[in-house]
C-alpha cells in the first residue's frame, strides 16, 4: 500500500487506477496516420509482453496458445475484466485507439493482477487502430469471439465510413474469425444498431444466432452489464440494440 | 524534414507530378506510353502511330495525368485511368473507346479479369470497384456504373493483379499490406472471402507481379516496396518465401552516411511468365552507368519477343523548359533463363534497333532527344512526389511534443 500513497492515480482502497486521472477524448479519428508501433505480422506480436505468466520468455511465441478473444474499442476495459475470470484459460486482448484510455486499462490489469495473484493473467490491452491493422495482429481464423460494444456512432453520412462495422471491414473480421466464431455488437443508438444489423445480415459469411442460442450464451448478458458504457445506459434508463452473429463458411 | 505550412502547400503540388508509364501488347502488336494526360500508342504491325477514337460524350481523352495503363484479356483490351477519375477501356482492334467509367475518386490501379469480362479499379481511398464489360459487340457505353468489390481501409491501393488462374485478385497498399481475395463467381456482389494477407514489407508496397508455373497454377507473387526489397510470396497461405534486398544488391545503400532517407524505393517490376527472371526498377541516388543515366519509371516485359521495354519520364515538372518528357529504351534477351550467371546476354538496343525504330520513339516520346539534366531533375522530382504520396509523415520528437502540448487534456494536467 505504500507505493499507492506515492502514486495518487491509484485508488487507496482498491489499488486500482482512478479514472479521473485518465481524462480522454470521447472520440478519435480512425482515418489519420498512426504513429504507434504496429507488428509487421501476427508472428511479430510479442506475447511475453502481454501475458508474462503464460509466456515467460519472448521466444515462445510459436507455442500453440494464441489470443482468441478481441474486444475492439475496449474503452475502459469493463467487459475484458469480466471475461478474464469467466474464461481463465483463454487469452484475450482489448484494442483501443485512445492512448490515455489504453494506459488506464493497462494499469487496471496490472493492479488486478497484483491484487488477485494468479488471476487476470490472460487479459491484456494494446493501443492500435483495429480498423487498419487487424491482420497485423491475428492470423486467419485465429479468433473465436470479437466484441464491438458501444462503438462511435458517426451520425453524419459523410462519416459512415469511419464506423467500425461496415460491409468491407466485416470481410477482414470474417478473415480473422474461425468458422463458428461469434461477433457481438451492441449500441444505445438505434440508427447504428440498425446499421450494424444490416451489415451483418447482408454479409454472406455471417448468420444470426437464434434466440435460444442467445439465451444460452453467458457472454450475451455481459454485453450491457459489464461495460462502463452499458452501465451508463442502464443508469439513464436507455435502450440498447444488440446484434450477435456467427461466422459461417461462405456458400459457393 | 522541417515541414512549415509553406512546404505543405508545395508538397500537395509535388504529388501532381506523374511518372511516365509503358505497356506492351502481349505479342508486341503495339506499345502504349502514357505521359501526363497523353496516351500515345504505336502500332507495330502497321508501323504507325495510332489515333484513338472516342465517341463518348464524357469528353474525348484524359484530362489529367494517367496513372495506369495496361493491356488485358490476351491483348484485346487496353485500359487507362488516372487523376481525372475516368477509367477508359479501349479495343486494341479498332482503337475505339469501348467504355468510360466515372470514378468518384482518383484512380490509382486497374486490372482486367483474365476472361475480359470485368474491369477492376482502385480509387485513392482504398476501395476497389468492379464494372462488367459487355461481350465485344462493338457497342459504345458511356457512364457505366461501377460497384464496390472490396476495400482496404482508407489506404492508397498501389497495385491490382489477377492471379494467372483467375481465382484471386491481389491488392497492395501503402500500409505495407498485400491482400489476396477470392474472386467470386458473381463479383458484382462483392468479394468477401480473403484468402490471405502477405505481410512483411516495412514500407509502402509499390508493385506486384505474378510468376507462373505449370505445377502451381495459382502462381507465386513478387512484390516491390519502398523498403527497397523485393519479396516472394505464396498467396494461398500468405507466407513469405524469400526476400531480396535489391537496394543493397545494387550497391546503393550504405555507400553514403545518410540512412533511411537514401532507401531507394522499388518503383516497378515485371517478370517473364515462367518466373525465371524478374526485372526491377529502383529509385536511386542518381548514378550514371556507361555514360548515360536511365532510371526507368515503368517496365514491361514481352515474353514472345524477349524484350524488356522501359520508359523514364515525367509530366507536370515545374521549373523546367520541358514540363513533360519521356524516353523509351529496350533490353533484349530477357526470355533466356540462364540469366543469373551471365548478365551480359542482355543487351540494350540502340534507338534504331528498337522495333518500330525512330518513328516509334518519336511517337511515344514526343521528341527524339532530351538533355541529360532534365532527366536528373525529373528523377529527383518523382522521388519526392512518390514519397509525399505514399510514405507516412514522420515528426521529430520535439515536434511531436509540441503537437501534444497543445492538446486540451494535457493543459488540464499541467494546471493541477
Question: What is the number of helices of chain B?
Answer: 6
**What is the spatial order of strands in the main beta sheet of chain A?**
3-2-1-4-5-7-6
Helix content of chain B: 10-25%
CATH level 1 class label of chain A: Alpha Beta
- Low-pLDDT regions of chain A: 1-5
Give the tally of β-strands of chain B: 28
Biggest sheet statistics of chain A: 7 strands, mixed
Largest interface: A-B, 30 and 32 residues
Structural class of chain B: mainly beta
Order of helices and strands of chain A: HHEHEHEHEHEHEHHHE
Termini separation of chain B: 35 Å
Proportion in helices of chain A: 25-40%
Number of domains of chain A: 1
Helix-strand blueprint:
The complex is a heterodimer of chains A (252) and B (416).
Chain A: H1 2-6, H2 47-50, E1 67-72, H3 78-86, E2 91-96, H4 99-115, E3 123-127, H5 130-137, E4 143-149, H6 167-176, E5 177-187, H7 190-202, E6 206-208, H8 211-216, H9 218-225, H10 228-235, E7 241-247
Parallel strand pairs in A: 1-2, 1-4, 2-3, 4-5
Antiparallel strand pairs in A: 5-7, 6-7
Chain B: H1 5-14, E1 18-19, E2 21-24, E3 30-35, E4 38-43, E5 48-49, E6 66-72, E7 77-82, E8 86-91, E9 97-102, E10 107-112, E11 118-123, E12 127-132, E13 141-144, E14 147-151, E15 157-162, E16 168-173, E17 177-182, E18 194-199, E19 205-213, E20 216-225, E21 230-234, E22 239-244, H2 246-249, E23 266-271, E24 278-282, E25 298-302, E26 307-315, E27 325-332, E28 347-348, H3 357-365, H4 372-390, H5 397-405, H6 408-415
Parallel strand pairs in B: 9-13
Antiparallel strand pairs in B: 1-26, 2-3, 3-4, 4-5, 6-7, 7-8, 8-9, 10-11, 11-12, 12-14, 15-16, 16-17, 17-18, 19-20, 20-21, 21-22, 23-24, 25-26, 26-27, 27-28
Give an account of the 3D structure.
The complex is a heterodimer of chains A (252) and B (416). Chain A is α/β, with parallel strands linked by helices. Chain A is built from ten helices and seven strands. A seven-stranded mixed sheet of chain A has the order 3-2-1-4-5-7-6, with helices on both faces. In chain A, strand 2, helix 4 and strand 3 (123-127) form a beta-alpha-beta unit. Mean pLDDT of chain A is 88; it is low at 1-5. Chain B has one domain: 7 Propeller (Methylamine Dehydrogenase, Chain H). Chain B is 14% helix and 39% strand. Chain B contains six helices and 28 strands. Chain B has helices at residues 5-14, 246-249, 357-365, 372-390, 397-405, 408-415; strands spanning 18-19, 21-24, 30-35, 38-43, 48-49, 66-72, 77-82, 86-91, 97-102, 107-112, 118-123, 127-132, 141-144, 147-151, 157-162, 168-173, 177-182, 194-199, 205-213, 216-225, 230-234, 239-244, 266-271, 278-282, 298-302, 307-315, 325-332, 347-348. In chain B, strands 1, 25, 26, 27 and 28 form a five-stranded antiparallel sheet that branches. A five-stranded mixed sheet of chain B has the order 6-7-8-9-13, with no helix packed on it. In chain B, strands 2-3-4-5 form a four-stranded antiparallel sheet, covered by helices on one side. In chain B, a hairpin with a 3-residue loop joins strand 11 and strand 12. The two termini of chain B are 35 Å apart. Chains A and B meet through helix 5 and helix 6 of A and strand 14, strand 17 and strand 18 of B. Chain B: InterPro entries: Trm82, WD40/YVTN_repeat-like_dom_sf, WD40_repeat_CS, WD40_repeat_dom_sf, WD40_rpt. Chain B: This is tRNA (guanine-N(7)-)-methyltransferase non-catalytic subunit. Chain B: Keywords: Methyltransferase, Nucleus, Repeat, Transferase, tRNA processing, WD repeat.
Amino acid at each position: 500500500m505504500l507505493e499507492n500513497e506515492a502514486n495518487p492515480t491509484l485508488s487507496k482502497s482498491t489499488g486500482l487506477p482512478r479514472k479521473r486521472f485518465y481524462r480522454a477524448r470521447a472520440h478519435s479519428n480512425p482515418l489519420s496516420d498512426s504513429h504507434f508501433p504496429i507488428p509487421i505480422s501476427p508472428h511479430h506480436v510479442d506475447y511475453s509482453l502481454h501475458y508474462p505468466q503464460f509466456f515467460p520468455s519472448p521466444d515462445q511465441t510459436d507455442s500453440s496458445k494464441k489470443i482468441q478473444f478481441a474486444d475492439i474499442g475496449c474503452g475502459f476495459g469493463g467487459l475484458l475484466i469480466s471475461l478474464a475470470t469467466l474464461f481463465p484459460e483463454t487469452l484475450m486482448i482489448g484494442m483501443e485507439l485512445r492512448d490515455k484510455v489504453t494506459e488506464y486499462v493497462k494499469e487496471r490489469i496490472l493492479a488486478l493482477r497484483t491484487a488477485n495473484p494468479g488471476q487476470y493473467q490472460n487479459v491484456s490491452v494494446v493501443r492500435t487502430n483495429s480498423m487498419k491493422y487487424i491482420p497485423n495482429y491475428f492470423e486467419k481464423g485465429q479468433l473465436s469471439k470479437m466484441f464491438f460494444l458501444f462503438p462511435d456512432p458517426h451520425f453524419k453520412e459523410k462519416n459512415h465510413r469511419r464506423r467500425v462495422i461496415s460491409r468491407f471491414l466485416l470481410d477482414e473480421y470474417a478473415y480473422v474469425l474461425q468458422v463458428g466464431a461469434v461477433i457481438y455488437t451492441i449500441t444505445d443508438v438505434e440508427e447504428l444498431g440498425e446499421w450494424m444489423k444490416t451489415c451483418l445480415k447482408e454479409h454472406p459469411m455471417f448468420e444470426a444466432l437464434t434466440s435460444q442460442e442467445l439465451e444460452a450464451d453467458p457472454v450475451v448478458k455481459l454485453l450491457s452489464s459489464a461495460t462502463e458504457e452499458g452501465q451508463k445506459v442502464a443508469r439513464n434508463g436507455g435502450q440498447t440494440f444488440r446484434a450477435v452473429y456467427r461466422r459461417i463458411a461462405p456458400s459457393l | 524534414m522541417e515541414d512549415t505550412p509553406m512546404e505543405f502547400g508545395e508538397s500537395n503540388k509535388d504529388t501532381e507530378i506523374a511518372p511516365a508509364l509503358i505497356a506492351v501488347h502481349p505479342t508486341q502488336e503495339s506499345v502504349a506510353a502514357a505521359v501526363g494526360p497523353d496516351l500515345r500508342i504505336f502500332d507495330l504491325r502497321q508501323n504507325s502511330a495510332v489515333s484513338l477514337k472516342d465517341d463518348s460524350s464524357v469528353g474525348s481523352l484524359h484530362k489529367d495525368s494517367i496513372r495506369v495503363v495496361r493491356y488485358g484479356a490476351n491483348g484485346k483490351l487496353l485500359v487507362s485511368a488516372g487523376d481525372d477519375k475516368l477509367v477508359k477501356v479501349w479495343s486494341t482492334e479498332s482503337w475505339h473507346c469501348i467504355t468510360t467509367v466515372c470514378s468518384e475518386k482518383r484512380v490509382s490501379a486497374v486490372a482486367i479479369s483474365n476472361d475480359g469480362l470485368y474491369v477492376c479499379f482502385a480509387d485513392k481511398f482504398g476501395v476497389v470497384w468492379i464494372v462488367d464489360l459487355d461481350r465485344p459487340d462493338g457497342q459504345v457505353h458511356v457512364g457505366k456504373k461501377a460497384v464496390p468489390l472490396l476495400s482496404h481501409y482508407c489506404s492508397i491501393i498501389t497495385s491490382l493483379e489477377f492471379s494467372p488462374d483467375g481465382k484471386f485478385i491481389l491488392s497492395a497498399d501503402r500500409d505495407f499490406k498485400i491482400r489476396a481475395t477470392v474472386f467470386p463467381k458473381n463479383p458484382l456482389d462483392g468479394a468477401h472471402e480473403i484468402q490471405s494477407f502477405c505481410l512483411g514489407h516495412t514500407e509502402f508496397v509499390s508493385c506486384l507481379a505474378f510468376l507462373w508455373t505449370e505445377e502451381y497454377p495459382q502462381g507465386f507473387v513478387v512484390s516491390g516496396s519502398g523498403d527497397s526489397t523485393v519479396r516472394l510470396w505464396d498467396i494461398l497461405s500468405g507466407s513469405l518465401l524469400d526476400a531480396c534486398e535489391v537496394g543493397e544488391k545494387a550497391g546503393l545503400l550504405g555507400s553514403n552516411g545518410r540512412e533511411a532517407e537514401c532507401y531507394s524505393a522499388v518503383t516497378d517490376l515485371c517478370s517473364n511468365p515462367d518466373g525465371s527472371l524478374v526485372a526491377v526498377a529502383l529509385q536511386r541516388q542518381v548514378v550514371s552507368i556507361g555514360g548515360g543515366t536511365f532510371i526507368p519509371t515503368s517496365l514491361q516485359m514481352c515474353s514472345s519477343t524477349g524484350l524488356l521495354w522501359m520508359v523514364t519520364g515525367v509530366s507536370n515538372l515545374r521549373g523546367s523548359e520541358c514540363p513533360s518528357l519521356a524516353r523509351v529504351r529496350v533490353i533484349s534477351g530477357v526470355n533466356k533463363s540462364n540469366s543469373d550467371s551471365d548478365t551480359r546476354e542482355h543487351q540494350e538496343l540502340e534507338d534504331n534497333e528498337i522495333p518500330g525504330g525512330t518513328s516509334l520513339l518519336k511517337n511515344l516520346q514526343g521528341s527524339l532527344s532530351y538533355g541529360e539534366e532534365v532527366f536528373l531533375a525529373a528523377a529527383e522530382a518523382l522521388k519526392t512526389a512518390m514519397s509525399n504520396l505514399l510514405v507516412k509523415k514522420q515528426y521529430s520528437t520535439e515536434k511531436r511534443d509540441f503537437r501534444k502540448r497543445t492538446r486540451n487534456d494535457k493543459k488540464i494536467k499541467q494546471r493541477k
